């Protein structure tokens, strides 16, 4: 059990050491390295360096020039080191995507749970699910909407909403439907004024009726 626990850390350190060794080999003139200097530069015992060179020698990527000197005889080192870095980047990207997928799965799970609670609630049981709605009080309770102009739009499916690039003095919102009327409600969520109408009792503008004021 002790050996099994230490093996992953040993393997990880050997991989890191190999990458550092390859970086030194890449920058060495003619791909020649002195193993004594390598051990000193990397701060490890020479036998750890031999762990690397023995493997590289066995697959015919290096050759011994002398007792403590080796030379790279494999493919272009720029391609070898570059591919290793590219592979690591792909692994990191895959890890990030996996984490994002887990986060999205958790969000979907939470949403499904909340929808289940909403439909399973006895107080909501008398209302069909497809007739869910928000009230004026719901909108007023949202802190971010305070002192803001809020417009509620009730439109059929596949309604298109476009917001062109805002101009200096105004913002335009284009809403278009081919499957029925569009109702627009102005919901005042600021401080109420005496006698002011709210979106609960305010008349709506429909796509089938003409507004009584100038279009601008």
TrEMBL record:
Give one Pfam family, short name only: WHD_E2F_TDP
Region of interest: Disordered? 197-216
The chain positions of domain E2F/DP family winged-helix DNA-binding read 9-74
UniProt cross-references to InterPro entries, sorted A to Z: E2F (IPR015633), E2F-DP_heterodim (IPR037241), E2F_CC-MB (IPR032198), E2F_WHTH_DNA-bd_dom (IPR003316), WH-like_DNA-bd_sf (IPR036388), WH_DNA-bd_sf (IPR036390)
Q: Which residues form a coiled coil?
A: 83-110
List the subcellular locations.
Nucleus
- UniProt GO cellular component terms: RNA polymerase II transcription regulator complex
This protein's source sits in the domain of life called Eukaryota
Descriptive protein name: E2F6 factor
- Which gene does this sequence derive from? E2f6
